[in-house]
Amino acid sequence: MKKYRWLTLILALLLTGCKVELYQNLPQSEANQMVALLMLNHIDVNSDIDAKTGKVTLKIEKDQFINAVELLRQNGYPKANYVDIEQLFPSGQLVSSPAQEEAKMSYLKEQQLERTLSNMDGVISARVSIAQNVKGTSTSHSNITDKSAAVYIKYSPEANLSSSETQIRNLIKNAVPDLQYENISLFLQPADFRYQPTVQPSSSSGWGDIQNWIAANKTPVTVGLGSVFIAGVACLAIRRRRED
């Protein structure tokens, strides 16, 4: 009987699989979008919700880790965290100087533009930097300010953002007061296409469809076969006990 117990224990350990942590502390809405994207590309994923914080942790099979990370990266997941106006101007803070207030407002505008650009289809990440050169004049109260903006966007190779370059420049120009169109520099960079989707082999026989179904339902099939094996071992043990 000890031999059967060891076999059962080993099989139970194998059935648990080798799950590794993919991402943690995710908002539920973003986690759901990531899970849907992974499932759409036939990548199995488990989600665990922390009852205290409501944050989600995603776990995945070790052999699918690389493809999962690359697939999410090419679709801009996980999303970057941006500051909002409450974080920059918390209630009860000491009054800052006009220069500090101007710097905060400029940073807030950069964050808003980055968030807007990141929501465009195909954008993986976006960075915006706004600079202003203040030139003094003969009067101390009148200054000439030249503003400029530098925009960097990394996008998925599946997207064609080059056709949207004019719209992106107009978006930046209209969002920043007194910014001239010629003072906007835009750099678009396609990301490396390192994720290779699994190509389902075509077969004229039914065996190819069976193989595809097993690959897509790996965990249920493993659990089912394991249950049959354990039941067989149990029946064999009972029969031998009766014979003794």
UniProtKB/TrEMBL annotation:
InterPro entries to which the protein is assigned, alphabetical: AMP-bd_C_sf, FliF_N_dom, T3SS_SctJ, YscJ/FliF
Membrane topology designation: Lipid-anchor
Broad class of the protein's primary localization: membrane
Location within or outside the cell: Cell outer membrane
Domain Flagellar M-ring N-terminal residues, every copy: 20-186
Keywords: Cell outer membrane, Lipoprotein, Membrane, Palmitate, Protein transport, Signal, Transport
Annotated Pfam families: YscJ_FliF
Signal peptide: none
GO biological process, one term: protein secretion
Origin superkingdom: Bacteria
Similarity comment text for this entry: Belongs to the YscJ lipoprotein family.
Identification of the protein by name: Lipoprotein
Source organism of this protein record: Vibrio tetraodonis subsp. pristinus
Organismal lineage: Bacteria, Pseudomonadati, Pseudomonadota, Gammaproteobacteria, Vibrionales
